[in-house]
Amino acid sequence: MQVTFITTIFAGTPIVTGLSVFADLPTWPDRALFAVRVGAVVWLVTLIAVYLYARNYRSTDSESDDEESTTEDPEPSDGSPGVDD
Predict the structure, then answer these.
(1) Domain coordinates of the chain in residue numbers?
(2) Is residue 5 a contact partner of residue 46, using CB atoms and an 8 Å limit?
(3) 6 exposure class (CB count in 10 Å sphere: 0-12, 13-18, 19+)
(4) Tens-digit pLDDT profile for residues 29-52
């Protein structure tokens, strides 16, 4: 959640500022509504991007855990001596 918020602020500020140059915003309520509308779209896009990134990171992380769990340990984990001892 914090990543989404911070990314939205850093990405959204220049986007809203850049788009406001081309919009006719004569009053403060018009400016506020414009910022909310554009900010909502930026937040939604950021939310989806962060979700997909986290889902992809989690799936690649679980795949590496699966590979590690399939390797055989040279000694039993219970502390008992191995067969060769």
Answers:
(1) 2-66
(2) no
(3) exposed
(4) 999 999 999 999 999 999 899 889
